[in-house]
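Supplementary Methods. Inverse-folding protocol.

Structures were first reduced to a discrete structure-token string of length 473. This string, shown here, constituted the complete conditioning input.
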């Protein structure tokens, strides 16, 4: 009670409503000005609504003097950091935390310190999975704290004990009793009979373990790297060349022969998604995935079919987080496992299709209307996708320092990086039909790649996109 009263006096020194309102507006203006865009009214409404949504969570969880109740139900003090909660990590590791590494690096570092405090207090000795208000909800799958931590370490935003953080990642990723991790490590996949999310968990663990490998490599812990880079290849063990999909595999090594429908989301071995979408969930190895799926030509056909197929309502009628307004063809934008899909064309000979698809998704899934968001915002992930994609690039595999180029929807933007540094995005010949990039200049020199590095952004400078109606041949 004393802490609550102290919070009240610390946060609201006056009962003048207008002063409190003005102070709140000034705080929001400061945050929203971290990215200043040029564009039409609808684009600005969409963009700054997305910025607002992205900055709401995670939330501060401590008294004004730093005291908070921890996961172990004891009282702790956050020493040297702000303690956060509301970690919807299955969603937010994909783009929200990478966005924070650009515009909110200190806050993101504090979030990681909060995750490490959670680890210290956890009776299971695990990093958070989906935690809120000193409770571990165990919601969804994977152990995506490791993605957030690795992304910060790889991108140089790690003012914490990085080796301790890596140890926490390893302990979490090798907790054999949690959601079939032991089976994943021993067999290289999770058998269908043992786990209802056998395929999606295998895929998510493989990606998370790749993140651990990247962190270990940077820290010169090559024994850890060699172990986890091997686990990162386990996605291959659930890809069935005969069906062309990621597929439930039984304990005896055979594929599930009956009851497999790649359009169905229920009882197919995937969490909140179908085989069509989850087959593309190898964000850390798109080139390997394309090779496994038969090469460039067959992969492009698969991708084109994803966006063009008309998915009947019966396939998502019983799924709580997937509705018609979040679907384009069979591409489920309203749920997160598909969020990197449109960018995968960059690994093919038709990267212009990434540009085309991104510019098609943006106005369909984000509108300046009361029902304008094509799904649950999932504590900022949907909005972070919009922010990155509208600016023209996206983090396909957090834990890498590379962003895949898309197609900017703004007329221009300035990212305020702090310390007087800015990264400017210029867009020449922007227009609804001019969705294809003709050339890109980075600080006045041609960027002859489809990727932009984190270091190039954080050094400051400018990138210029030249747009047109015709795509590259």
């Amino acid at each position: 009670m004393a802490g609550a009263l102290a919070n009240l006096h610390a946060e609201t020194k006056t009962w003048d409503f207008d002063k409190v309102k003005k102070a709140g507006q000034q705080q929001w203006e400061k945050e929203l000005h971290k990215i200043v865009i040029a564009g039409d009214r609808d684009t600005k409404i969409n963009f700054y609504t997305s910025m607002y949504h992205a900055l709401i969570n995670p939330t501060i969880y401590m008294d004004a003097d730093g005291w908070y109740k921890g996961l172990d139900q004891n009282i702790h003090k956050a020493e040297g950091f702000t303690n956060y909660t509301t970690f919807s990590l299955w969603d937010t590791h994909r783009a929200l935390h990478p966005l924070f590494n650009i515009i909110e690096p200190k806050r993101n570092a504090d979030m990681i310190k909060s995750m490490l405090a959670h680890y210290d207090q956890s009776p299971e000795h695990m990093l958070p999975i989906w935690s809120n208000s000193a409770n571990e909800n165990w919601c969804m799958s994977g152990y995506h704290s490791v993605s957030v931590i690795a992304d910060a370490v790889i991108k140089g935003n790690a003012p914490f004990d990085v080796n301790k953080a890596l140890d926490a990642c390893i302990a979490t990723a090798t907790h054999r009793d949690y959601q079939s991790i032991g089976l994943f490590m021993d067999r290289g996949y999770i058998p269908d009979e043992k786990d209802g999310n056998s395929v999606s968990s295998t895929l998510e663990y493989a990606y998370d373990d790749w993140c651990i490998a990247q962190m270990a490599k940077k820290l010169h812990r090559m024994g850890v790297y060699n172990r986890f880079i091997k686990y990162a290849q386990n996605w291959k063990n659930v890809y069935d060349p005969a069906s062309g999909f990621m597929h439930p595999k039984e304990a005896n090594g055979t594929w599930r022969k009956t009851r497999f429908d790649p359009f169905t989301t229920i009882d197919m071995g995937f969490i909140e998604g179908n085989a069509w979408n989850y087959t593309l969930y190898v964000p850390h190895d798109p080139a390997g995935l394309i090779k496994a799926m038969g090469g460039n030509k067959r992969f492009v056909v698969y991708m084109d079919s994803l966006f063009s197929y008309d998915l009947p309502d019966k396939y998502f009628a019983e799924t709580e987080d997937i509705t018609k307004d979040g679907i384009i063809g069979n591409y489920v934008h309203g749920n997160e496992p598909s969020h990197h899909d449109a960018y995968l064309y960059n690994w093919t000979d038709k990267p212009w299709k990434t540009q085309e698809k991104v510019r098609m998704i943006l106005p369909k899934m984000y509108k300046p209307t009361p029902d304008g968001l094509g799904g649950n915002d999932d504590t900022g992930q949907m909005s972070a996708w919009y922010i990155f994609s509208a600016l023209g690039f996206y983090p396909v595999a957090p834990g890498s320092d590379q962003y895949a180029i898309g197609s900017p929807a703004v007329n221009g933007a300035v990212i305020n990086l702090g310390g007087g540094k800015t990264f400017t995005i210029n867009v020449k010949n922007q227009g609804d039909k001019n969705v294809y990039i003709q050339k890109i200049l980075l600080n006045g020199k041609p960027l002859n790649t489809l990727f932009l590095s984190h270091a190039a952004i954080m050094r400051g400078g400018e990138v210029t996109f030249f747009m047109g109606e015709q795509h590259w041949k």
